[in-house]
Design brief:
Blueprint: H1 2-16, E1 20-26, E2 29-34, H2 39-48, E3 56-64, E4 78-86, E5 91-98, E6 106-108, H3 117-128, E7 131-133, E8 162-167, E9 172-177
Parallel strand pairs: 2-5, 6-7
Antiparallel strand pairs: 1-2, 3-4, 4-5, 8-9
């Protein structure tokens, strides 16, 4: 198994060259981290080069690294992670690219390369606020169009920013600031005196 993974890593290094930021083999998987400025170009090579031939995008998601590993993370905050499959070589690959700016995260869209990426990119935009340059229909997919914020960001308030209620006077649903007071719920544990003692 490790010979196949080493062969895949060698092929990636040879084909992609300076576009590669890092290649890591761990837990029986290869993770390729690409530079943001060459992400689209590298994705084309991943699909079209016969030595790689990753014809299928299985998954694409956003990741928020804020607070990762007990706040010891010093890299960029937002990343896009894709999982690719090569049917010709029976290889799987994890591809990661970090958005250059944390305040305005943008990466290239791979929808023209793998058209199945469209909804995945919309989901990453909706939940994390990551923008995909070149996506033709980048709009919310899971939250309401009037929703403020991106719920999977680690700085998004748990109760949200606005709540939706039905106004009987207006006879429609309206948005208003959240009226929920934050509280901490600590479970109360009640045990019998001999709980856990051997009988």
């Amino acid at each position: 198994m490790s010979d196949r993974l080493n062969q895949l890593a060698a092929n990636l290094e040879r084909v992609l060259g300076k576009r590669v930021h890092s290649i890591e083999i761990a837990l029986g998987e290869v993770t390729l981290t690409l530079n943001a400025d060459t992400y689209y170009e590298a994705a084309l090579l991943l699909r079209d080069d016969p030595a790689l031939a990753f014809e299928q995008l299985i998954d694409l998601c956003g990741v928020d690294y804020q607070g990762f590993r007990d706040d010891t993370w010093t890299g960029q905050r937002f990343a896009v992670v894709s999982h690719l499959l090569s049917l010709a070589h029976n290889w799987r690959l994890r591809v990661r690219v970090f958005a250059v700016e944390d305040s305005y995260p943008v990466v290239a869209s791979v929808t023209p390369i793998w058209n199945g990426a469209s909804w995945f990119e919309r989901e990453a935009f909706d939940l994390y606020g990551i923008l995909f340059d070149g996506h033709e229909d980048l709009r919310r997919i899971l939250t309401d169009y009037g929703f403020v914020g991106h719920p999977f960001r680690k700085d998004f308030p748990i109760a949200g920013n606005v709540e939706m209620i039905y106004d009987p006077e207006l006879k429609r649903v309206v948005y208003q600031p959240v009226s929920i007071e934050p509280r901490e719920i600590t479970p109360r544990v009640i045990r019998e005196e001999q709980y856990g003692d051997p009988v």
